[in-house]
Amino acid sequence: MLETATMAETAAERGGGYPEPLFILAPPRSFTSIVCGILGQHPQCYGLPELNLFLGDTLGEVWGGFAGFMKSFGRDGLLRTFAQLHDGAQNEDTIARAQQWIISRSDWPIRKVFDHIQEQVGPKILVEKSPSTLFRAEFLERALRTFPEANYLHLIRHPRGTAASVLSLRAAHEEIARVANVPMLDPERVWRISHELSVTLTEPLPVGQSMRLKGEALLSHLDVYLPQICEWLGIRSDAEAIEAMMHPENSPYACEGPPNAPRGNDPNFLENPTIDPERLARIKEPSLVGELSWRPGENFDPRTVKLARQLGYS
Amino acid sequence: MPEDKVMPVRAVAEPTVGKLRAEDFSELEIPYLNPSIRTSQSMAWFADRVILGTGRSPLGFLGRFTGQESPRRGAHTSTGGSDQDGAQILSFDPVSEVWTKIYDSPVLPGKDGTPRARDRSIRASLVCQTLADDAPTLYLGAGSLEAQVTFLRSEDGQTIEECGGAGFNLDADVPSARAMACLHGRLFCTPTGRNYGRGMYDDNITDFPIVFTATDPRSGNWVAASEPGFGEAENLSINELAVFEDHLYAATLNPRFGFQLWKTDARGEPPFKWYKIIDRGAWLGSTNSIPAAVKVFKGALYVTATVQRQGRSSLDNYGPFPAEMIRVYANDDWDLVSGTARFTPNGVKRPVSGLTGGFGDRYTHAFWRTAIHDGDLVVGTAGWRWMPTYLRNRDELSDAQYRRLCEDADKYRAGEFKLWRSPDGETWELITEHGFPGSSPNNYGVRELLPTPHGLFVAPTAMVGAVGGGGLELWWGRK
């Protein structure tokens, strides 16, 4: 794929040295961690943990915004990123220094923060996947306004599978359940609102700037879809590049961080970031029909069914 | 098959000099029509004449919109005329410009004994020389108001005879024929609709989603050429048929998963062996549920699809979703022509026209009809704005989002439809963006296109019958 590699280089030259980033848009529990981990290991990409940068206009607003979420674990991705990029390691000391660095630059616009990360990384496509980008319309609008030329991958997962994963995570992590077990964060509701936002706000983008992909299809057929994503992004799709992508565990963020920033990604992914091809091949789409396990006696809201059908589920 | 994988960026071109433009079309006055006639679902060029099949509304008590509240912009369907007025067939000689009425629906006792027209609409027509014919013969499917479909035939374009047998050789409620194709001396046809039970509310579906074939349609010897739904229960009808590179293609309506495209060489004895080449609405899903038109053009089969209007529970009050067009090659590869760029099991697909669905207009609901004229692929559309079902029950949208949708819907222009033309399927230009000057404000789409050596004939369709200010129009475009 010499031709596409040349395209990426040319794009980088045109854009002042750096290619446009790739943002993965999806609500929590939509395979974003593993997918971001996979794409981020491409030799021409750099996978980031969850930065949650679109929660505010400045670094200070992001740091102090969406209080419960950011203070519990929402800051870990930023801390780990700066520790890694500034000091080449993630430990309690480098995380502390990263925190000081962030606090002393609270007036930085988020674009400047992102550009700083890009400078540290070099001419690679930054891949970012914060589910918080879909928490509110203003967050996604901020992303689109700040990065009007970026590529957006709308990653989808069946609402029943998403909800099952959400509930399983909450059951296993008391601190998450404490924050999330409220009616407003009913997994079906979060799924519907998040995807509706993504569908509506990316629809006006030029042809091909935003692409939608079922997580189930991608993960159960990596051989089919990874080369297509490479083609879309204009990067190499040779065997060496694909093999690199099959090892998300090689990312410096694919493990638990130090005690003062342990997360920055899905806890399950951090525990086991290695691809298990046999398990992935067994991923199937569940049905929209049937009772909801977390709301006995109820089925999916008709609005959820319609949106899911629009997205290709049944 | 283009090798270029880079996204093409093709502006919509200005009208080409020497090609048809909107002002080249004039409306033909059509004599003989009874007051019930409101549309044409089928036209053919045969024996140097335009054969115009016409149709009326369902009977009042079966009316599609009876008792239904909806944000339609026009009046509710007016049947017009009387129950004795039924489908008609006219012929038009473009040289002498003389019309002739060649068929009137017979009037028979209805189910309750009251005299009624038998035929509702001529919904399918095709010139085919079957094994039993001495020469190319015109075949037509006359949809029934209360009973089974009747097949008609004509050897000279002036006289019509009824074929024998009962409909598709079924003892069942199958009131209409949908698509026709001709291959290896066989006429192929698919059924649609049902008069009783679920009523005429949705006449795009059938209890018999089967491709039928006959080597001697005059005798009514129809037999199944496929298994029902090609073995998939979610295929609710076979909506379109086409012959391409010595194979028969069939496109299915599949509201749950999206349309499918199947193919057979139709060799040997029926039922034939079919295989699927397009699935799940060309991998867009259920918003590509219904195939609207198929046409072979310059080495590819062009297929258009959209979401079907089905009422309250359907995706049509979740749109607007624009129509899509794909093209399929004889080796089963396919391109997206106009639509949403996407990843598929067949590779990443980006529109070769550079245009999203609806040729860039998300309010284009359907690429309803296609035709080859003057070396171009011509497409007639229908829009979303005349019936904005998508404004219902949208409480998941923010106020701002809903307001934007309403503002877009308010850009409706009465009588609008579009006609597009392309010399290669990739560069598209408008023949007209807002219908024809002077056409009925009740028109909302192009229901039929007929290319002839004497110009292009266009039959728009209206949301109301003649009594309500709509009715059948026929426009003749010639340089």
Molecular structure report:
The complex is a heterodimer of chains A (314) and B (479). Chain A is an alpha/beta fold. Chain A contains 17 helices and 5 strands. In chain A, helix 8 packs parallel to helix 11 (187-202) and helix 9 (159-172) crosses helix 11. Chain A has a single domain, classed as 3-Layer(aba) Sandwich (Rossmann fold). The model of chain A is unreliable at 1-14 (pLDDT under 50). Chain B has 2 helices and 30 strands. Chain B has helices spanning 280-283, 399-409; strands spanning 25-28, 37-46, 49-56, 88-93, 98-104, 107-109, 115-117, 119-128, 137-144, 150-154, 161-162, 176-183, 186-192, 212-214, 223-224, 237-244, 247-253, 260-264, 275-278, 290-297, 300-306, 324-328, 334-338, 364-373, 376-383, 419-422, 429-432, 443-452, 455-462, 474-477. In chain B, 56% of the residues are buried. Chain B is mainly beta and 479 residues long. In chain B, the strands form 8 sheets. In chain B, strands 1-30-29-28 form a 4-stranded antiparallel β-sheet, with no helix packed on it. In chain B, strands 2-3-4-5 form a 4-stranded antiparallel β-sheet, with no helix packed on it. Chain B has a 4-stranded antiparallel β-sheet with strand order 8-9-10-11, with no helix packed on it. Chain B has one domain (22-477): 7 Propeller (Methylamine Dehydrogenase, Chain H), CATH 2.130.10.10. The interface between A and B is medium-sized, with 32 and 35 residues.
